[in-house]
Amino acid sequence: MARVGIMLVALGAVVALLQVAAALPRLEHPPKADGSLAILVVGDWGRRGQFNQTLVAQQMGVVGEKMDIDFVISTGDNIYDDGIANTSDPLFKESFSNIYTAKGLQKPWYLVLGNHDYTGNALAQLDPAIRNVDSRYTVIAKSFIVNSGIADFFLVDTTPFILHYWNNTKFDWRGVAPRDTYITNLLKNLEYALTQSKAPWKIVVGHHPISSGCGHGNNTELEELLLPVIKAHGADMYVNGHDHCLQRITSRDSPLQFLTSGGGSKAWAGKFKATPDKVEFLYDGQGFMSMRLSKTEAHLAFFDVAGSVLHCWGLTKTAAAAGH
Ligand SMILES: *[C@@H]1O[C@H](CO)[C@@H](O)[C@H](O)[C@H]1NC(C)=O
Ligand SMILES: *[C@@H]1O[C@H](CO)[C@@H](O)[C@H](O)[C@H]1NC(C)=O
Ligand SMILES: *[C@@H]1O[C@H](CO)[C@@H](O)[C@H](O)[C@H]1NC(C)=O
Ligand SMILES: *[C@@H]1O[C@H](CO)[C@@H](O)[C@H](O)[C@H]1NC(C)=O
């Protein structure tokens, strides 16, 4: 009996180790000295400067410098049409380094992959060698966490959720297939990370929308699988791209805000979908989003291609919720 007991203890230790090994990779990005954080969010951008990518980039530079941003988040579809072939693919410089040249944007960029980054070599943007080309470009894994003291950002790889991509041979599923196991593990790790998070603001970032009134609209796979996890664990915002618009939607049955920042280049699709959630603001054009966070307040804004504020709003947290 004693031997069985020891074996069980040993087995428990192995399982614990495996769980640690499977935890989502994380990196620390400390806030400013006063505890606040300023960031920009852009998505769906890499088109060699075309479709007003350059104009959006210039205005991000102006706003980024004014706000003294700490970092930039990309909601994916970083490089059109099929990501990059390898870290020396000239498309990377043409669509990233040579475009986001402003002083205000010389900060780390934390990125998720979109479906367009997946239809070539989906591993190239994750290769650490990319930072020899441009030191800002930070994709430490397909899903990872950025801890910033007052806010935790949970970057989630949403492309594998979308069922109809799985019949398209252009997608690079290395390290992903089989789908069910990948998604189960990802959600388990995300749930664990959300429950462990002590940050007042919990912000989940993915490429595909959960709720959207723009051209692509809702994704049922994400509604069914991802939404319950992020609602149950008190996420404040779900931030996405994929729809080439700027959009703020509030959930009708939770404090969650669905924010689309997918206006980094080609836009003006002129297509709209119904969503049962409350659409507070929708702009079917180019631009980006800014976010300034303190322990108890969040100030967000959407900017257009000329740098004009289209819509801004605030969120507050009670001192108790902020962990005082
Ligand atoms: C680029 O932005 C300008 C406004 O500054 C707009 O008139 C034009 O249609 C936009 N071009 C594209 C391709 O979206
Ligand atoms: C990287 O990709 C580019 C673009 O497809 C190609 O021209 C080049 O030969 C590739 N380089 C290496 C080292 O594979
Ligand atoms: C994928 O293709 C298979 C075989 O053609 C088909 O049975 C299945 O319904 C397709 N799945 C989706 C999600 O389109
Ligand atoms: C959009 O999502 C909501 C849940 O947030 C769901 O009830 C609704 O049926 C979806 N609408 C469409 C058009 O898929």
From TrEMBL:
Major localization class: secreted
GO function terms (MF aspect): acid phosphatase activity; ferric iron binding; ferrous iron binding
Signal peptide: 1-23
Residues where Fe cation 2 binds: 77, 115, 207, 242
EC number: 3.1.3.2
Gene symbol of the encoding locus: LOC101782380
Keywords: Glycoprotein, Hydrolase, Iron, Metal-binding, Secreted, Signal, Zinc
Residue intervals of the Calcineurin-like phosphoesterase domain: 39-245
Pfam families assigned: Metallophos
Family: Belongs to the metallophosphoesterase superfamily. Purple acid phosphatase family.
Cofactors named for this entry: Fe cation
Catalytic activities: a phosphate monoester + H2O = an alcohol + phosphate
Location(s) in or outside the cell: Secreted
Organism: Setaria italica
Keyword Nucleotidyltransferase appears in the UniProt entry: no
Gene Ontology terms: cellular component: extracellular region
UniProt remark on cofactor binding: Binds 2 iron ions per subunit.
Chain positions recorded as Fe cation 1 binding sites: 44, 77, 80, 244
Keyword Transferase: no
InterPro entries per record: Acid_PPase, Calcineurin-like_PHP, Metallo-depent_PP-like, Metallophosphoesterase_PAP
Protein name in the entry: Purple acid phosphatase
